[in-house]
Fold:
Amino acid sequence: MLCQSTTRGVSVLAPAKLNLFLRIVGKRPDGFHDIESVMASVNLYDTLTFDPLPTGDIELAVVDASPRSKSGELKFEAPAGPTNLVVRAANLLKEYAGSNQGARISLIKRIPSSAGLGGGSSDCAAALGALNRLWRLGVSDAELMQLAGRLGSDVPFFLGKSSLALCTGRGELIEPFRVSTALHFVIAKPSSGLSTPAVYRICEPDRTNQSAERFLKTIQTGRICEMARRLHNGLQAPAETLSSDVRRLRSLFEQESVVGHQMSGSGSSYFGVCRSRRHAMGIASRLRSAGIPWVRIVRSSP
Structure:
């Protein structure tokens, strides 16, 4: 999350994330699932601006910056009302701090919705951090993390200081990691999306011997090819039963020279690990030629 002051308020670049590793540990009594996930933020951003509003209201305007495909099917829809995580974050922070301040918020959506890329969670984290700064509330990082966990399982990751982290519990327990190597990816998304609750509803606990710790060691030691071989997502199989588009993306990536590939989060986006930006550019071009409406070349931050 990149935050800076503007003439009147605060501007934030809220990044997308990829799940490089995701193991379903088991279902919890509260209905959520315990997971082990290695998340990496990448340089694909929504842009949010926050300006003070004397009335004390929270106003949100959303701009859809999705590409206009020939079919017109791809939309980055996000509600502008009270159900938007940005508005929920603002109201929760106001309540927690006992503040009566308001904000006018602009959100430019570049991260697709229902894609497993964490766009809504990232925007939510941006709202917590930016409004704490704009309103000069002095809420501590630890307190913001607690509020983030109440708003969504992925939200705490985006409040962290590291671009790579091991996320456990239902995703809200964050252990940051530093790496020295930037990773290059191609991300593709079909016009259809997937519902996270629907995918989790039919998933099963992972009975394999996959280990998040072993996976992280391959990244930290720069063994990218071994890391790519250890990519794992326990939600991909259930997602493929729900979406022929995810199955098609897997088939397309299997025909490419990516080092490794899998779905991100609960889908429907899919990514491939590439050796370099040039390598990624060639793969992206072929995916676009195959009719995939949204393809992006991104990298993680070291």
